[in-house]
Amino acid sequence: MSTGAILLIAATLNLALIIGLSLTTALLKARRERRARRHEQELALLRPVMMRYLATWEDGDAHDLADMLIGYHGVTTSFEELVAGLLPKLRGADRSMLVDILRRRGTIDQARQGTGSRWAVRRYRAVELLGAAGVSEGIPDAAALLGDRNTDVRLAAVRALGRIGTVEAAAALLEHLDSDEGRKHPIPPHPVTMALLRIGTDATDPLTRALEAGQVEVRTIATEVLGVLGVYPAVAGLQARMRLDPSASVRLGATHALGRLSMPSSAGDLTAMLRTEEDVEVLAAACAALGRIIDPSTIPDLEHAVAHPHPTVRVAAAMALVPFGATGLDRLREIAQRDAEGGDAAREVLARNSIATDTTPLISL
């Protein structure tokens, strides 16, 4: 065979391949477009039924609509797809009615079974649905996925427990983090903190128990969340963590929490911290906490802290004197006359205060 014939055959095959790929691409595009149109048509039929049901179920005249939703099976969409986007926006009875339909359709049971799937994407979707529905029977299934080998599934399980939001969900989350399984497949602290904050004061008892957890990260999360939630009965436990915990991050979390709670009974422990603590961040947090409590008896300790060798502590202590009003500002003006021992911090804070309050600092800066 001549070279020309070989080149002609190659060119013909190449052209046929290009035409074949072009036809295949066009067919796939047309198929996607048909499916998208069908999807929109089905949603356009299903959405009004759902809205009418939510608008009329309280009147007791929506049994037919409920039966229609329970029996609905679309080709390109599903009741679950529509509900998944709607559930997070609903509260109260409307949300409960939709969850009831999900139960009657068998969706909740299927989702619970789906958390055991061998495919990560199915486990992810299943636990997301359990969280969106907020069903307490899903707590054991979501808790089991906290140790999943897939990171996205573990994070979805954390979100689900936060959305379900009961004391059992909080306990499952904190106990897992403090377990050997939790150390094997770690979860970042931020999503856990957000989930516990979402659960709210229902998480008080598990959080209080977690102050004694073996893991530093768990104790740190517990201290910070208890402070943000304003759990005043936890003050004694937080004071103990601040005084005795060997981890600086736990002491810092406990100090933050005591500052947020601002209980006068914490002032003694906080001033004691100013004399014994070596971590700069904890010292600064203790000063800030005392600035929230505003106990006049702590002013001498704050004045002493203004002379600390580290500038972070000096500024924090000087700022803590500002909430004491005229007394605190007078002390700062005296300190500001010094060349050392906190004079720089006092001058800086007085300057900031004068800008914030549009007043004259009354010293030569």
Automatic annotation (TrEMBL):
Write out the transmembrane intervals: 6-28
Database matches in InterPro entries: ARM-like, ARM-type_fold, HEAT_type_2, PBS_lyase_HEAT
Q: Which Pfam families match?
A: HEAT_2
Record-linked SMART domains:
EZ_HEAT (SM00567)
Q: Where is the secretion signal located?
A: none
Gene3D superfamilies the UniProt entry points to:
Leucine-rich Repeat Variant (1.25.10.10)
Q: Which UniProt keywords apply?
A: Membrane, Transmembrane, Transmembrane helix
> Keyword Iron on this protein?
no
Q: Is Protein biosynthesis one of the keywords UniProt gives this record?
A: no
PANTHER family assigned to the protein according to its UniProt record, in alphabetical order: DEOXYHYPUSINE HYDROXYLASE (PTHR12697:SF5), PBS LYASE HEAT-LIKE PROTEIN (PTHR12697)
Protein name, entry field: HEAT repeat domain-containing protein
Q: Which organism is it from?
A: Kineosporia corallincola
Q: What is the lineage of its organism?
A: Bacteria, Bacillati, Actinomycetota, Actinomycetes, Kineosporiales
